[in-house]
Amino acid sequence: MDRVFIKNIKEHVDKEVTLKGWVYSFRRSGKIGFLTFRDGFGLLQCIVAKNDIGEENFESVKKLTQESSVVIEGKVVENERALGGYEVIASKVEIIHISKDYPITPKEHGTDFLMNHRHLWLRSKKQHAILKVRHQIIKAIRDFFDSNDFTLVDSPIFTPNAAEGTSTLFGTDYFGKTAYLAQTGQLYGEASAMAFGRHYNFGPCFRAEKSKTRRHLTEFWMVEPEIAYCDIEEDIQWAEDLLAYIVSHVLSTCKEHLVTLERDIEILKKIKAPFPRLSYSDCIDILKKDGFDIEWGDDFGSPEETHIAEKFDSPVIVHRFPSKIKAFYMKRDPENDKVVLGMDILAPEGYGEIVGGSERETDIDILLDRIKEEGLNKEDYDWFLDLRRFGSVPHSGFGMGLERVVAWLCGLTHIRETTPFARTMGRLNP
Ligand code: 4AD
Ligand code: MG
Fold it and tell me: What angle do CA 396, 402, 403 make, to 5 degrees?
């Protein structure tokens, strides 16, 4: 008898199959049991009747509890009233392990309780769907860059540098020196772009975010392309193409998961390139006109981002921010040296900044000034400045935060469910 997965069940109608998995729920009524079975691919109803499996087996099945592990043999039949349209009429239920007092029951639990049991919560329908969507987003990202001749080059996690400001660094003792966990792979990405032309890195980044928000993790994944001979306009184009590709991939591969998550798919279908583009100054005008207490030069908080983004169906590209509020490596706009050739992309529906990027400063003297202004240690950046000494070219890149994109596409109110084991200020466990 073939072992089959629930995702392929419809290919086995009227055939005998073996299923290996767990009890999602079990209800018995007299001589018949209704077992919702899960195997990591989906859920399936199994009919466990005394007449079909025999008296002895039926007695043992009475012990089954939520999340007990079982191997079921039986026949697949169509049943439009069953979950997914198919069910299995069991002929044998082999009990592998009885799970006692599974803590996550069908009743409502508080988020803290669920996060404490994250290692088990991953089995629940909604959490399972989120991580399936996350997987497809990762696949879309990799496919997009791989098919556009970007080479994946990994950047280190232990670094001497603070590329995104000194206030969110995680330091650790490194044989008597201090190493920082990477806030970004970008500086190394710039080295790779000079070696490979088109490069991306994709891995975990770390920021000691001391605020508790719906959007910040201390450990998150970022994908960062870096492109030689690329200006800010081309950079924006790559980011837009990437996002449009991800949305269309998710819509074509994740329908059932989005339905499980009760995500409004029509909203996602409205996302269409080209995305609206606004300068930072345009945004300030809009915000002031709409009654926000904000001055040119102030950074946006989440209410400002949400207000701008809510005016559009698609993500909004905001460019040319004041240099004072952006990182040291961003290139000054030759037409206005108060602003940098940087861009952020704000997701619709208040999901906030999903992409940050820029054209990179190539002038070594400006970079040295900015490194000094930020209070950074010049020696730690000497290797980076070599990229401006040996064959320096105009180049650009951006970083897209994976978990923010997962939150947005899945329609989640909080980022903690977008990653298997969230790390936040208040959580290092499990
Ligand atoms: O805007 P950020 O800080 O940009 C950089 O790190 C650049 N070095 C990227 C580059 O140009 N190569 O971060 C980029 C993105 C943000 O837009 C956001 O989506 C995500 O990373 N991000 C976070 N996601 C979750 N939790 C956090 N604490 C995040 N911080 C940034
Ligand atoms: Mg940013």
Answer: 140
